[in-house]
Amino acid sequence: MISRPIRWVLWLLGMAAFAVAVALAGRHGSGYVVMVAPPFRVEMSVMMFVILAWPVLRWPIGLIRLAVAPYGLPRQLKKCHAEQERAKSARCRFCEPGAAFFGAVS
């Protein structure tokens, strides 16, 4: 598995490569998007439309994920408690021989 700092560096390199690709694609794209509502007409480049449409399309996905997330909390809480119990029992098993040798009573 890749360590956390290397993962961050790879993520940043990937994002930089994506930004360069978008900039190059935007430089060579000469298309326009025209949106017409009877008294108004909005004309913008395809790249501007994609940049503005991305958050608008991601917003509902984020809201759905935010609404669904609490339903997984009980399962995560059970898993966390089970892990804490395992760690506690492992700690007790590790300390028992020393306690028996030195005569400590727990």
Descriptive report:
With 106 residues, this protein is mostly helical. The protein has a two-stranded antiparallel ribbon with strand order 1-2. The relative contact order is 0.05.
Q: Within the largest sheet, what's the order of strands?
A: 1-2
Structural class: mainly alpha
Strand content bin: 5-15%
Compute the CA-based radius of gyration: 28 Å
Biggest sheet architecture: 2 strands, antiparallel
Average of the residue pLDDT scores: 84
Helix content: over 70%
Principal-axes shape call: elongated
Number of helices in the DSSP assignment: 3
Low-confidence stretches: none
Q: H/E element string?
A: HEEHH
End-to-end CA span: 40 Å
User: Total number of β-strand segments?
Assistant: 2
Brief overview, please?
This protein is mostly helical and 106 residues long.
Helices, strands, pairings?
Layout: H1 4-28, E1 32-37, E2 40-45, H2 46-68, H3 73-102
Which features characterize this protein?
106 residues, two-stranded antiparallel sheet, single chain, elongated, 3 helices, mainly alpha
